[in-house]
Amino acid sequence: MIRSTIALTIGLTCLSASAQMTPVGTWHSIDDKTSEIKSEITIAETAGVITGKVTKLLRKDAKQDQVCDECSDDRKGKLVLGLEIIRGAKKAEGKDVWEDGKILDPENGKNYTLRLTPVEGGKKLEVRGSVFGIGRTQTWVRVN
C-alpha cells in the first residue's frame, strides 16, 4: 500500500513537471536594464497556436492607460493593457520549443520573429525576438 502510494506520488509529480514544459500560463516579464518586473503576460494555446496578452502593467511608473502609439498594424492606438503581443507561434516537432510566430514590443511598435523555450522545468521561459537572426533573449518567470 505504501509503495503504491509512493509510486503514484512520484508519477503525478513527474506528470506535473512535464506538463509545465510549455509556454502556456502566466509570466512576469523582466526589464532588461533594471531587472524590475515589468508586466504580466498570459499565454494561451488554441488549436496548436500560441497567443499572449499583457494582463498587468507592474512597473512603479506604469501608465495603465498607455497606448501603443508606435504600432503600425491593427494594434495601433490600442491600450497596452490587454494588448496581444504574441501571435502565431507553434510547437516545433519533437522539441519543447515554440517558433514561427511574432512578438510585438509595445514600447517601439516593432514586431520580431519569436522563439519560446521553457527552461528550468518550465519555471522560466526564454523569449527570443529577432530580425534576420539578430536579436535578444529575455527570461520570463512563471507566476504561480
Notable characteristics:
144 residues; mainly beta; Lipocalin; eight-stranded antiparallel barrel; 1 helix; 8 strands
Overview of this structure, please?
The protein is mainly beta and 144 residues long. The chain has a single domain, classed as Lipocalin (Beta Barrel), CATH 2.40.128. Helix content is 12%, strand content 47%. It has an eight-stranded antiparallel barrel with strand order 1-2-3-4-5-6-7-8. A hairpin with a 6-residue loop joins strand 1 and strand 2 (37-46). The radius of gyration is 17 Å and the shape is globular. The model is unreliable at 4-19 (pLDDT under 50).
Strand order of the largest sheet: 1-2-3-4-5-6-7-8
Total count of domains: 1
- Provide the structure class: mainly beta
The average pLDDT value, as a whole number, equals 89
Basic shape: globular
Main pleated-sheet profile:
8 strands, antiparallel, barrel
Query: From the coordinates shown, what is the CATH architecture?
Result: Beta Barrel
Instruction: Give the beta-strand count.
Output: 8
Order of helices and strands: HEEEEEEEE
Q: What's the helical proportion of residues?
A: 10-25%
Please tell me how large the radius of gyration is. Answer: 17 Å
Content of β-strand: over 45%
CATH class: Mainly Beta
CATH fold-level assignment: Lipocalin
Low-confidence sequence ranges: 4-19
Count the DSSP helices. 1
C-alpha end-to-end distance: 32 Å
